[in-house]
Automatic annotation (TrEMBL):
Residues 159-300 form the Glucose-methanol-choline oxidoreductase C-terminal domain. The keyword DNA repair does not apply. Its cofactor is FAD. It comes from Prunus dulcis. GO terms for molecular function: oxidoreductase activity, acting on CH-OH group of donors. Keywords: FAD, Flavoprotein. PANTHER family: GLUCOSE-METHANOL-CHOLINE OXIDOREDUCTASE N-TERMINAL DOMAIN-CONTAINING PROTEIN, OSJNBA0019K04.7 PROTEIN. This is Glucose-methanol-choline oxidoreductase C-terminal domain-containing protein.
Length: 316
């Protein structure tokens, strides 16, 4: 499939430009069978074991006040988790949990334009085989002058580089884990970033971006950058490689840690444990498209229907 071209919508917008979130899917739920806990954090999975099997029978979660709550499932039903890559090897050995952690590199430039900009979110994406180009405008919260910047970013698809996640605490999930994504450890990711930065350089030379210059200098010299600018030496790859490594940031599309075939099976069931599935981006070995939100919503519905169908078979 040829994915080159442009894509409209990094999120879900209607014909009137209004943005819609996944929470609106709750409107189609059955209120009598649906309870939503906001600002809730899963603290523990409750297991039941016998001589031949280990099963998940519920969870313990805390609310915004720190109070714990218990939620149990019926014996033929399942717990479905949507949190990423937590190590439960104390209960059942899973050496691949937290391994193969991916994060799409984001490298960018910020331009301070001569005239004020309106705030805008990502709506148009330029897609090539090596990188995606996205643009937005945003304000700098910590700056008292309320600066609004033009941001142009390149995202490396995939990626091929990966790292790992390890919990710092086995009893408090609120303690931030140790995560390493090993950006650009795979040479192909670095080469794609260099291609993306060269494309940013070419974009800065176009007539469309002339209004964003603060003076009439040619090339990239007429722009006022907020933060790092593209390297001065643009004749070789080495300077761009250094720029990629020194300015890399997350695109917030991190994934992996509970991969299919390593931690969960083809139906996203945790291998070695009954009645427990993982349904989120931790099962992905690459981030689909420019934004994984729609894919994750589709996956959630697919797995939900699968669970219902399997339950009907069990109930006969």
């Amino acid at each position: 499939m040829d994915q080159k071209g442009t894509k409209v919508g990094g999120s879900i917008f209607d014909d009137h430009g209004r943005r819609h979130g996944a929470v609106e899917l709750l409107n189609r739920g059955e209120p009598k069978n649906l309870r939503v806990a906001v600002h809730a954090t899963v603290e523990r999975i409750i297991f039941s074991s016998n001589s031949i099997s280990l099963s998940a029978i519920g969870i313990i979660y805390s609310d915004s006040n720190g109070k714990n709550h218990w939620a149990y499932v019926h014996i033929i039903r399942e717990s479905v988790l949507s949190f990423i890559s937590l190590k439960i090897s104390v209960i059942h050995p899973q050496p691949n949990i937290g391994q193969f952690m991916y994060d799409n590199p984001r490298n960018f430039i910020n331009i301070l334009p001569p005239s004020p900009l309106d705030l805008s979110s990502l709506q148009i994406v330029g897609i090539t085989s090596d990188f995606y180009i996205e643009a937005l405008s945003y304000n700098v919260p910590a700056n008292p002058k309320y600066l609004i910047l033009a941001n142009i970013a390149a995202k490396v698809p995939g990626p091929l580089s990966y790292g790992s996640l390890r919990l710092q605490s086995s009893f408090d999930v609120k303690i931030v884990p140790n995560v390493s994504f090993n950006y650009f450890i795979h040479p192909m990711d670095l080469a794609r970033c260099v291609s993306g930065m060269r494309k940013l350089r070419d974009l800065l030379k176009t007539d469309s971006l002339e209004p964003f210059k603060t003076n009439s200098s040619s090339g990239t010299e007429g722009f006022k950058f907020y933060g790092p600018s593209l390297p001065v030496n643009q004749t070789d790859n080495a300077s761009f490689e250094t720029f990629c490594r020194s300015t890399v940031a997350t695109f917030w599309h991190y994934h992996g840690g509970c991969l299919v075939g390593k931690v969960v099976d083809g139906r996203l069931r945790v291998m070695g444990i009954n009645a427990l599935r993982v349904v989120d981006g931790s099962t992905f070995n690459f981030s689909p498209g420019t934004n994984p939100q729609a894919t994750l919503m589709m996956l959630g519905r697919y797995v939900g229907l699968t669970v219902l169908q399997e339950r009907e078979v069990c109930e006969g």
